[in-house]
Amino acid sequence: MSAPSPGALERLRGAHRRAVTGLLAGGPLSRADLTRATGLSRTTVSSLVTELIASGQVIETTDRGRPHKGGSGRPPLLVALATPGGSVVGVDVGHHHVRVAVADRTGDVLAEETAAVDVDSHGAHTLDRAASMVRAALTRAGLGRDDALAVGMCVPAPLHRASAQIRTGILPGWQGLCPGEELHRRLGLPVFVDNDANLGALAEVGRGAAQGVADLVYVKVASGLGAGIVLGGRLHRGATGIAGELGHVQVGEDGPVCRCGNRGCLETLVSASRLVQVLQPAHDEPLDMARVLGLDADGDPGVRRVLGDAGRTIGRALADLCNSLNPEMVLLGGSLGASPSVALGIREALDRYAQPETAAAVRVAAGSLGDRAEIVGAVSLAIVRVAAT
C-alpha cells in the first residue's frame, strides 16, 4: 500500500486545523480539552496549536481552566482565537420567530433583534424579514454591511447536502428554496446554513454544557423533535445532510399523519403542542408550554406523568441510536429540554433498552444555553467558516 501523497497529508492537516479553530470559536479551551474533543493525539494537538499561535490565528491566554473532571492538579493554560477585525451575524429561524445577532469574531454579541414571524408557510417573506433585521442589528451595533464577514443561519428543517435546498414538507412554504442563496441575494454577504439541532449541538460543545465532549447527541424537544450528532468533536450530517431526524422515526404504522407526510412519527406523540393538548382537559386555565414547565417544576403529578411518558418514548428511540453510536452524553435542548420529568423518562428508557455498558457510559443532562443555543450556534458557524477561509 503506497504512502499518502504530500498533498493528501496537507489536506488532512488542514482539516485538523479547522477542527481546532472550530472548537475555539466557541471560547477558550485547554490543549487537553482540544485533544478530548477532536480525538487527535496530544502530540498532534500541541503541534497544531503551536502552528496556529505562530500564524497569529490563536493566542495563549493568561486565564487558566479547571483540571479535567475535578482533578487537583494545576489548572491548565487556555488557548483562544485571536481577536481579528470584522464581525459576523447569526440568524436563528424557528417555526414562529426570527432572531438575529451581530457579534465580534470571539462570539461576543454586539446587538440583537427578535421578531415573531409565521415562518413555516412564508419562506420568502421570512427571508425578507431576516435581511431587514440583519441590517437593523448592524446599525444598532454601529457597523455597516461591509463590516460583516459572514452570516450563519439555522433553519428548523433538514437541508439536502448537495443542493442546499429544503425538500421536506416540514416547512411547506420553503420547499425548493435554498435559504443560504436567498439570504445572500438579499444581503450580498456569504451565508452558511445548517439545521437548528446541528447548530444547537455546535453551541453547547463550544460554549455550553458539552465543552470538551467529543461524542454526544443533542436532542431538541420543542414544536418538533430533532437531533444534532457530534462524533469525534465534529458534527455528523450524513450522506445527504439529514442525519439526526429523530422525530421522524416511525413508532406506529397506523399513527397520526406527520407534517413530513409519513404516519406514526415520534414527534406526533411528543411535540410540545401535542403534550399541551393532552394535558389541557385536566386544567381549567389555558395551558402553554411555559405554564406546563412551571407545573412540572412544582411537582404536579399529572404533568409529571405525561412529560415522563414523553421522555420514555423519546428514550426508547434514543436507546437504539446510543447502541449504534456509544455517545458520552445526551444533551437536551428546546422548550422541553429543561424539564426534569422528560430527562428522567429518557434516563429510565436508556437504562432499560440500551446495552448495559452503553447506558452506563452516557450522561443525560439539560443544555446550559436554553433557547439561545441556536443563535449562539449560528454565530459560531459564521466564525468557523470565516476562520477556515
Automatic annotation (TrEMBL):
Keywords: Kinase, Transferase
Domain of life per record: Bacteria
PROSITE patterns: ROK (PS01125)
UniProt-listed Pfam families: ROK
Classification via InterPro entries: ATPase_NBD, ROK, ROK_cs, WH-like_DNA-bd_sf, WH_DNA-bd_sf
Molecular function in Gene Ontology: kinase activity
Keyword Mitochondrion recorded: no
Family note: Belongs to the ROK (NagC/XylR) family.
The protein, known as: Sugar kinase of the NBD/HSP70 family, may contain an N-terminal HTH domain
